[in-house]
Amino acid sequence: MRATAESIGPPAPPRPVEWVRKNLFNDWFNALLTIVSLGFLYFALVAIVRWALVTADWRPVTVSPLLFLVGQYPRDQLWRPGFSLLLSTFLIGMSWGVWERYVKAFAIFLGILLGVLALIPLETPTITFAVRAVFLVNPLLIYLGYRIGRLGAVKGRHVAMFWLIASVLMVLVLLPGYKNIPALTEVPTSAWGGLMVTLLLAVGGIVLSFPIGVLLALGRRSSLPVVKISSILFIEVVRGVPLVTILFMFSVILALFMPAESRIDRLIRALMAMVFFSAAYTAENVRGGLQAIPLGQVDAAKAVGLTNFHVTTLIVLPQALRMVIPAIVGQFISLFKDTTLVVIVGINDLLGIGGAVLNLSPEFVRLNMEVYLFIAVIFWIFSYFMSYASLQLEKALGVGER
Amino acid sequence: MVTTEHLRERIPFWRDERVLRAAAQIISALVIIGFIYWMVVNFFEITQQRGMSLSYGFLKEPAGFPIAESYVPYDPTMSFGRAFLVGLINTLLVSVFGIVFSTLLGFVVGLARLSSNWLVSRIALAFIEFHRNIPLLVLLFLWYFGIFTRLPRVKESITLPGPIYINQRGLYLAWPRLTESGSIFLISVVIGVILAVTAWIVLRRIREVRGRETYFGWVSLGILILMPAIGWFGSGGAPLWVDVPVLQGFNFKGGLRLTPEFAALLVGLTTYTAAFIAEVVRAGIQAVQKGQVEAARAVGLRNNQVLGLIVIPQALRVVIPPLISQYLNLTKNSSLALTIGFQELFAVGKIAINQAGRAVPVFLMVMATYLALSLFTSLVLNIYNRRVQFIER
Predict the structure, then answer these.
(1) Cβ–Cβ of A376/B123 closer than 8 Å?
(2) Other CB atoms within 10 A of residue B276 CB
(3) Interface of B with A in 142-171 (CB under 8 A)
(4) Which of A281, A294, A307, B165 gives 20 to 30 Å between its CA and that of B70?
(5) Residue-wise pLDDT tens digits, A157-190
(6) How confident is the prediction for chain B on average, in pLDDT?
(7) Please, what is the angle between helix B80-113 and helix B118-132, to 10°?
(8) What ipTM was assigned to the predicted interfaces of this complex?
(9) How close A336 comes to chain B (CA, Å)?
(10) Do A237 and B371 touch (CB under 8 A)?
(11) CA of B373: which chain A residue's CA is closest?
């Protein structure tokens, strides 16, 4: 296409009337479709707005928003999840500073979300000033982390190390606690709940399944028959059965295969199931990345005298893993949605809390629609913006462009 | 001479690749077998302590629990095996209907997404984005607890033309049933369809080979009309009667009844999967290059020919593999029925575990069934996929 001097630059936006004629009424069929859909939209919107503002009773949602966030977590111990949240957001800000565009969309989304949460005008006794303050500090911490991350002295490996230290710290702070330390009393995991559990299961599931998934993917391509066959068997069996059966396996059947005296916490068993399930899918994603590495790379690496181990860890994996980051983020989003299934084994995640809230008062029993719609909206906001951020990440990585 | 001597020089065994490989194999095999052995030992210890048995003999024992919805005769005095069959049939039923409906809805939404009409395309986008970003379980809860259990009582049923009655007890719709002589009609319809398909394939092949017009479309259409007509008159002109639901006392009698559980599960699975299928379809159609359509128009094909001969066959190649995985997901997701009280395979298995106390055999059976279903579906669809794929050289 050759452009003349005048036509360079974006074309002028069309006038509204022209736009409507071109996009909605360009022939009789489209005109009919437009009218039908306008009618449909009008009735649907009127019905929805009327229901949401007049008919619906939002008390189950507003009576105790903290329940949806942390479940029954003792209110005097709330600093523990709060501390973990602040630590994570600070490090997310720092990651944004260091890795720039890769993390940018995630960090900004999180900052806005938490800021909005802090400012929601809702008068309930459970949302104290301290809770609001914790949420309000998050966007500032993200920004602070970003400025620090931008400093030349801070490198990616530092941030990675901070993440490692932080996750150990968070585990120590959050885990059931210690009998002897009054500041960190024991909080049984049965009291955990809400969005906290959902996020813990999803993040824990994806992070812990990652190394296993990589090993399985390598195992599937191994030239050793024993390793190869067992990897394939694991991957295909896990992918062939529903997540429910795996959750059930870990919550009921696992106990029959462990030494009689061992007892594993219910939440940990659910997490194990998520890891087990997720590992098979991670393996398939990583395999996609491994297959995309040209054989020439391996030959060249061998020609300069690298051992098999070094070929894999220095040449193949770094390139392959970079390629599969978007797929892993996509898998994280679906794992985040799949964590809702833990209600089946009796864990109060966000969805489970919904059921619990409905039983709070006899007046709430029939308000299913309101509660589940609220939960759906939370999930929707998280997954929609994570998908968006993942798209930005994909662009930043330039996957598919090289 | 020097080179051969050099080659004969013994490699120390710890650097001999063959030895290393064998060692790695043996070590990994030992680790895996050892782990399994450890679990099995634990298992036998525990089963002996609790006096559990591992045999499948219980399948013949009476199940003792009712199943609300079954499409083969079942009552609690029948065996566990029968109960599993009922569960399996329920799973298959919801999966098959779900696959059919979600494919139809998914194609409609996917095409709407590509519509040149801005509004239609946006509505399709809203449908897709709504479903893709919420968990299926939440969607099922919304449909079941939010809508299907909140429907009006029987006396105040919502009536739709058909007649279709919707109330708390479920969905009642008029349903055609065979009369006594109806089987003649049914058989002739089946024969007609088989004949029509055969005629289509054979005559089309003849046209391709001989290059002579065989009017295969008209011939098979004729058979498709003629055979049922013969059957219709053969059965005395009344092969079917319509079973209309009628309000009798406190409930509806007759017609086809879908329980709220089944309806909620079917609707939820269908809309959820349809959103994903719509994206698959959109991607597939967009993958067909514009030049292909333009070239087809240039050689004088009509619009429907462009779509049927150029766009769809090429789009199918892109669409089918992800479509297969969506179907598999739907089948596996049907296990969520447990949470809303529709008794399919997994739900029946769970009751059986609680009642019979034979966790492991029941569990293995359920897992194996799902695995078999997955493998079977992907096998069938992969065979189909191989037929439509473009064969390069």
Answers:
(1) no
(2) 20
(3) 142, 145-147, 149-150
(4) B165
(5) 888 888 889 888 888 887 766 767 776 777 777 8
(6) 84
(7) 150
(8) 0.87
(9) 8
(10) yes
(11) A240
Look at B122 and A3; give whichever has higher pLDDT.
B122
Order of strands, edge to edge, in the sheet holding B170-173?
B158-160, B164-167, B170-173, B256-258
The domain that contains B324 carries what CATH number?
Answer: 1.10.3720.10
Chain segment B212-248, per-residue pLDDT in tens: 777 888 888 888 888 888 888 877 777 777 778 887 7
Say if CB A241 and CB A310 are below 8 A apart.
Answer: no
From the list B25, B132, B336, which residue is nearest A224 (CB)? B25
A241 touches chain B (CB under 8 A): yes
Hey, where are the domains in chain A?
A: 71-187, 191-366
**B253 occurs within a structural domain:** no
Chain A contact for B201 (CB, 8 A cutoff): no
Q: Which residue of B has its CA nearest to A219?
A: B28
By DSSP bridging, strand B170-173 and strand B256-258 are antiparallel
Would you call B28 an interface residue with chain A, using a CB distance cutoff of 8 Å? yes
B8: domain range?
A: 2-50
Residue A96 near residue A103, CB atoms below 8 Å: yes
* B350 close to A245: Cβ distance less than 8 angstroms: no
Cis peptide before B163 (omega within 30 of 0): yes
Q: How far apart are CA A120 and CA A133, in angstroms?
A: 12
In whole angstroms, give the CA distance from residue A336 to residue B68: 33
Across the interface, of A23, A242, A387, the residue whose CB is closest to B370 is: A242
Query: What is the C-alpha separation between A79 and A63, in angstroms, rounded?
Result: 21
Q: Which residue has the tokens 């087809």?
A: B296
* B64 dihedral zone (left: phi>0; alpha: psi -120 to 50; beta): left
Are B14 and B120 within one domain?
A: no
Which residues 36-55 of A are in CB contact (within 8 Å) with B? Answer: 37-38, 40-41
| Cβ distance of B145 and A368 shorter than 8 Å | yes
What CATH number belongs to A191-366? 1.10.3720.10
For residue B7, the surrounding DSSP H or E stretch is helix B2-8
Backbone angles phi, psi at B300, to 5 degrees: 95, 20
Kindly state whether A245 is in contact with chain B, defined as any CB-CB distance less than 8 angstroms: yes
Q: Are residues B84 and B45 located together in one domain of the fold?
A: no
B350/B359 Cα distance (integer angstroms): 9
pLDDT at B274 over 90: yes
Chain centre distance of CA B10: 60
Contacts of B370 in chain A (CB under 8 A): 240-242, 245
Chain A residues whose CB is inside 8 A of the B29 CB are 226
Handedness of CA A367, A368, A369, A374 (dihedral sign): positive
Q: Is the pLDDT of residue A31 over 60?
A: yes
CB interface of A with B, residues 304-323, below 8 Å: none
Report the C-alpha gap between A214 and B263 in whole angstroms.
41
DSSP for A171-203, please give it. Answer: HHHHSS--SS-GGG----GGGB-HHHHHHHHHH
Report the greatest alpha carbon distance in chain A. Answer: 82
Domain count across chain B: 2
Residues of B in contact with A376 (CB under 8 A): 134, 138-139, 142
